Amino acid sequence: MKNLALLLVLFIIPFSGKTQTDSLLWDYELEDPGYHFFDSIKDAWLANDFQEIMKNNHLKLSCAKCHAIYINFVFEIDSLGTLADYQVVKGYICGEEPGNKLVEMFLKRFREMVFPECFYRKKFKVRLGNALKC
């Protein structure tokens, strides 16, 4: 009986509770100066890169056909301030999951930049894109 109970506990615990990314902060939960730095980068990304991505991929936000275009990532910044790794957590491009080409377009600016020291050896969640409240 003890073995059965132990087996159940070992099987149930990994599948209950939070996922691995749930404990990570979102970019908007970061403390200063990280919050303000990333907020300004994200604003520039939305104004420039996102608009270009939408244009080049013939995407348009509308309540009738496409109310959301976004990808949630986990960014991992290394000790040199570069994007060492990322994980796509969730993506929604007009009702479909994003393809690799679109993911790479979303990441281009972040792959090229050097993050300040407050980001060194950090992991955090980011939502890139936009959605309408229809």
Q: Mean of the pLDDT scores?
A: 86
| Main beta sheet strand tally, sense and closure | 3 strands, antiparallel
Residues in helices, as a percent range: 25-40%
Number of domains: 1
Order of helical and strand elements? HHEEHE
* Sheet/helix structural class: alpha+beta
Strand order of the largest sheet: 2-1-3
What do you see in this structure?
It contains three helices and three strands. With 134 residues, it is α+β, with helices and mostly antiparallel strands. α2 (34-56) crosses α3 (100-112). The chain is globular. The protein starts with a helix and ends with a strand. Mean pLDDT is 86; it is low at 2-19.
Fill in the keyword field for this structure.
134 residues, 3-stranded antiparallel sheet, 3 strands, 35% helix, disordered N terminus
